[in-house]
Amino acid sequence: MTSERQASSVETVDAFHRGRFFLLQPKGRGHRAGMDAMLLASLVTGAGHVRIADLGAGAGAAGLAAAARLTEAEVTLVERSDEMVSFCRRTLALPENAGLAARAQSLQADVTLTGRARRAAGLEDDVFDHVIMNPPFNDASDRKAPDLLKAEAHAMTEDLFEAWIRTACAIAKPGGQLSLIARPQSIAEIIAACGGRFGGLEITALHPRPGESAVRILVTGIKGSRARLQLRSPLTMHDDPQSHAFSSAVDDLNNGRTAYSRLRTGK
Q: Where is the Methyltransferase small domain (predicted)?
């Protein structure tokens, strides 16, 4: 999925999608993008010019992965952390990303802002065709870890999904799509937060191997839809219990060769 070269003693430049785009990331600390971001990006589909907001974008992995596959897509990479915003902007300035940089912008903003404060920060109403997110997933007590940058990226607050999905609904166009990846333990909070905002939810469980419990869920929904929730067939990361090789379906999603399209495209 990735190859790495050392940019300095504290950061690396990593290739994704077999070298279709590159990411500047902190080395040995903070959140380093991987398969979660690539699977999240695979949920984004569309022809022609589509606008994507990547909430909590970090260095920009998921948003750039979607834009690399959708050659007319425009992506806004929304991040709060000063340091990760710097990595994101330096990622866009990499010569290897010159083809993507014209269709991507970094926006420093707190995803949990509401109303006038949110709009003043640059997150306007009814703008985006797609809103994607890979929210923090660990208990807030993880903030006590020595790696504060990583703790901030991974620590969950009690109303996290309510706050993030509220913003996603505000900035998505009517009929726009929400896509997110999370731990299965958050499914109840996600469904509750989507209620009255995003309908037609499609949920896919991601399992490491046959017979093992799910470690992630992929969720999509449509703003304003009244369609009922649907559980899709699960995805399995590794077909062979003795191998770490990805299944062909997951490998294709991971490397941007295919998209994981919704079963239902309308309301």
A: 39-183
Q: Decide if 263 is inside a domain.
A: no
Residue 32: predicted pLDDT: 82
Supply φ then ψ for residue 198, to 5 degrees.
-120, 130
Number of neighbours of residue 156 by Cβ within 10 angstroms: 20
Q: What angle do CA 208, 210, 211 make, to 5 degrees?
A: 100
Q: Give the separation between CA 106 and CA 252, rounded to whole angstroms.
A: 27
| pLDDT tens digits for range 183-238 | 999 999 999 999 999 999 999 999 999 999 999 999 999 999 999 999 999 999 99
Domain annotation covers residue 107: yes
CATH number of the CATH domain containing 72: 3.40.50.150
Q: What is the pLDDT of residue 6?
A: 58
- Overall domain count for the chain: 1
CA angle 39, 42, 44 (to 5 degrees): 135
Residue 65 placed within a domain: yes
pTM of the model as a whole: 0.89
| Domain residue limits at 127 | 33-254
| 222 within some domain | yes
